[in-house]
Here is the input.
Amino acid sequence: MNESFHFTRRWFAFFFLYVVVWYPISFLLLSAYQVTGNPAVYIAANIFTPLWTLLVSYLYFRKAENHWPARFATAFGWMALMFALAVVLVKPVYGLGWSSILNLDVINANWINVVAIIVGAIAAAKPRVK
Here is the structure.
């Protein structure tokens, strides 16, 4: 195993950036859709998260360890932290119980974010020179 591992201050800083931008925008998009019922807002709400995830992942992996263990640790680590944070915030923000977030339907719907993190990492990888 490498002397350094994946869970560095930079790893947590990028996760913090990811959440601080994602949560309010997602909340606003969901609220706008519930108020207007506009299908364009629905589409925007559904594509914002994976696109934001892809961008943050790409920016993170440009200067981070970028190999398969790091990619998977980041993908599953960020998603685990995201779910933990969502469970904590669901009651004060939405007034719902934790089971509305932590269930198989929601977990299954978030596979695209794991893929977005891995694709962002692959896109950020520097080509090998032979």
